[in-house]
Amino acid sequence: MARILSECEKVERSINKKYRKEIWNAFIAAVKRYELVLEGDKIAVCISGGKDSMLLAKLMQMLQRYSDVPFELEFLVMDPGYNRRNRELIEHNAKLLEIPVTIFESDIFDVTNKVSGYPCYLCAKMRRGHLYSKAKELGCNKIALGHHYSDVIETTVMAMFYGAQLQGMMPKLHSTNYEGMELIRPLYCVNERDIISWRNYNNLEFLQCACRFTEAYTNSEDGIGASKRQEVKHLIAELKKTNPNIEKSIFNSIHCVHLDTFPGYKTKGERKSFLDDY
Prior knowledge:
The protein is α/β, with parallel strands linked by helices. Helix content is 47%, strand content 13%. The chain contains eleven helices and eight strands. The chain has helices spanning 7-16, 20-33, 51-66, 84-96, 108-112, 120-137, 149-162, 192-201, 212-218, 228-242, 246-253; strands at residues 42-47, 72-79, 101-105, 142-144, 172-174, 182-184, 264-267, 270-273. The strands form two sheets. A six-stranded mixed β-sheet has the order 3-2-1-4-6-5, sandwiched between helices. The radius of gyration is 20 Å and the shape is globular.
């Protein structure tokens, strides 16, 4: 008689079997291609409670189990001021997925709620600062965030359309404020639609962003509201109808930048002009 699998084992099996190509192989491709995990690393996997960070935590846990490269993990949950239901949902999912989380609190929501407009930048900056500090306190040399393939593409388009610059999202980077610390993005090659499919297949419920800004576009008639990211997400979906490879083309373009064709660029904070070497 076949042994009955636990919910956690079913989730892991779905990653190993049904979503092996789309999720596991894509995850491993990013880890290897960008050298994200090295021997002796102690990595703080940062969990917001959403689908991306929860999947990241499970993938990193499985990688540690199967990898020949020894490394350590800490699973960090920063509570920026969640209500009781959201906090309990994160704790429930961590238990279900058998992820041993360390939860610590901050006052980020209290601070950002006092800021007029849309304080997303401030919120993200404060979150990262708290996570770096806690990770360093625990002896970690890296933090892992749940940004995925779709985030990379959308950020690239947003920077050009609304930031007047060609700017990508790096798979890893050194912290400028926390010496010896590094940020890595192991989901860099995993498409969001596959994460959503995996979540739905396993009947999992994860936390949505709990800020009032997200609520604004979720409740808007067009599903976009004032969110430029949602606007770009919709645009890419429309372009994909006539060009199925649009995402791949955008992603590959940031890996093949021809600087010789640009009249200007910026490196290490310094602006350069083609006239400098003309």
